[in-house]
Amino acid sequence: MWIYGRNPVLEAAREGGVRRVLVARGVERKFLKKLEAAGISYELVPRIELDQLVRTTHHQGIVAEIEEIRLAGPDAPLRLARERGELPLLVLLDGITDPRNYGAILRSAEALGAHGVVSETRRSAPLSPVAVKASAGAARHLPVVQVPNLPRYIEELKEAGVWVYGLAGEGEVALEAADYDRPLAWVIGSEGSGLRRLVRDRCDQLVHIALRGRTPSLNAAVAAGIAVHWALAARRG
Predict the structure, then answer these.
(1) Comma-separated ranges of CATH 3.30.1330.30 domains in the chain
(2) What is the CATH number of domain 76-236?
(3) 2-66, what's its fold?
(4) Where in the chain is the domain with CATH 3.40.1280.10?
(5) Cα dihedral 232, 118, 144, 52 sign
(6) What confidence tens digit (pLDDT) does each residue in 213-228 have?
(7) What is the dihedral of CA 186, 108, 93, 84, to 10 degrees?
(8) CB 45: neighbour CB atoms within 10 A?
(9) Whole-prediction pTM value?
(10) How confident is the model over 117-168, as pLDDT tens digits?
(11) In a designed cystine with 88, which of 108, 133, 168, 183 is the match (CB 3.0 to 4.6 A)?
(12) How wide is the angle at C-alpha 137 spanned by C-alphas 136 and 139, nearest 5°?
């Protein structure tokens, strides 16, 4: 898998998952010294080679081949929660197809302390280089799960004692009024159509984030970050 951009490549190199680094000829010497100081070996190549490799010109002159990130098993999030001695908190994605949103959700979930992000194989963005780049390294530190059937996975979580909240503008419960003192999974729908009916019907409750401005909705990644942060803050409080 190839990733690009200076910060994502430097982060991946610090984690030790980089196989090869390519740098465009003509990149400023100051940046090359930064790579050398970090002990990162690199090859100088024509910039057009990077353009063709990652199919964009927005690579900032650096591309890295990294080890493939393996998807986790369906039970990995609950297992991680048990290992930490914490109440489970999962993020389930229903129809998030933008890889940048997907990566941003992975980043927020890992940074805030959730135990895993789960999406459906056919109705979500893949764990692509774009998603990995947007996750800023989080995809390597968090169970990332893809299941063939999200409604069925929700039923399995409920059988395991996990309470499932669907985030929806028309939710009957306000974010600040929900009960977070139990195993919990947030379900985040797509920005366009929200939660599918099959998913919505399996949620224990629908929860809304109160909006006070004129903008009618939030970006899915922003909404997911708010929901995860609120749940964890409520537990600590």
Answers:
(1) 2-66
(2) 3.40.1280.10
(3) 60s Ribosomal Protein L30; Chain: A; (3.30.1330)
(4) 76-236
(5) negative
(6) 888 788 999 999 999 9
(7) -60
(8) 14
(9) 0.87
(10) 999 998 899 998 889 888 878 888 999 999 999 999 999 999 999 999 999 9
(11) 183
(12) 110
